[in-house]
UniProtKB/TrEMBL annotation:
<dbReference type="GO" id="GO:0016829">
    <property type="term" value="F:lyase activity"/>
</dbReference>
<protein>
    <recommendedName>
        <fullName>Glyoxalase</fullName>
    </recommendedName>
</protein>
<dbReference type="Pfam" id="PF01965">
    <property type="entry name" value="DJ-1_PfpI"/>
</dbReference>
<comment type="similarity">
    <text>Belongs to the peptidase C56 family.</text>
</comment>
<dbReference type="InterPro" id="IPR002818">
    <property type="entry name" value="DJ-1/PfpI"/>
</dbReference>
<comment type="function">
    <text>Displays glyoxalase activity, catalyzing the conversion of glyoxal to glycolate.</text>
</comment>
<keyword id="KW-0456">Lyase</keyword>
<feature type="domain" description="DJ-1/PfpI">
    <location>
        <begin position="15"/>
        <end position="140"/>
    </location>
</feature>
<dbReference type="InterPro" id="IPR029062">
    <property type="entry name" value="Class_I_gatase-like"/>
</dbReference>
<dbReference type="InterPro" id="IPR026041">
    <property type="entry name" value="ElbB"/>
</dbReference>
Length: 217
């Protein structure tokens, strides 16, 4: 059975993982018979957003506790990742990626990546294991791997410019498709960077999951 880690960044599009993207990823992996494990940073999230009105709330929440809402409690801290036991890794989108896994939301191309995540992704890459990045998550790829890797976030020119500034190669891509950097085994899809419905997001995410599993050696 192929073993895939999903890395989450909280619960909710504005301050954590995008719930639809996370669940669609889990669903595709489940249908295809993969063994899935879940991880996230075990620390306070950047801030808490009221998802009804978009306003910041005066409270603190833990990234792993919030992520556990999506995984029904089945989650471990990033420090518990054992790369030798994994065949692949996927990171769904949501602003939590750009606020909790890194600080791209505030620093753009000068962003810093969570140190544990940085080490995990670099080591997975060194071992030639495929990785998928969904929605806004592909912005981290050029910063983490420091290579001109092909990625997509759809067609947003400002975000694409930041990717180029970090040394990545942005490829425009429709919502129902994927961009594959075969040499580096990186697969990306726009999802809710472009999706106007759950069904649209599902097409690209399912393609990404299938391609990741296909690339496992």
């Amino acid at each position: 059975m192929k073993s895939v880690a999903i890395i989450l960044s909280g619960c909710g599009v504005y301050d954590g993982s995008e719930i639809h993207e996370s669940v669609l990823t889990m669903l595709s992996l489940s249908r295809l018979g993969a063994e899935v494990s879940f991880f996230s940073p075990d620390e306070a999230q950047h801030h808490v957003i009221n998802h009804l009105n978009g306003e910041e709330k005066r409270e603190s929440r833990d990234i792993m506790e919030e992520s556990a809402r999506i995984t029904r409690g089945n989650i471990q801290p990033l420090s518990k990742v054992n790369i030798d036991e994994l065949d692949a890794l996927i990171i769904p989108g949501g602003f939590g990626v750009a606020k909790n896994l890194c600080n791209f939301a505030f620093k753009g191309s000068d962003c810093e990546i969570n140190k544990e995540l940085l080490s995990i992704v670099q080591n997975m890459h060194q071992q030639g294991k495929p990785m998928g990045f969904i929605c806004i998550a592909p912005v981290m790829v050029p910063k983490i791997l420091d290579k001109p890797i092909k990625v997509t976030i759809g067609n947003d020119p400002e975000t694409a410019a930041q990717i180029a500034k970090m040394g990545g190669v942005h490829v425009e891509c429709p919502v129902d498709d994927i961009v594959v950097d075969f040499e580096n085994k990186i697969v990306t899809t726009p999802a809710y960077m472009l999706a106007e419905s759950l069904a649209q997001a599902e097409k690209g995410i399912d393609k990404l999951v299938r391609k990741i599993l296909e690339m496992i050696e």
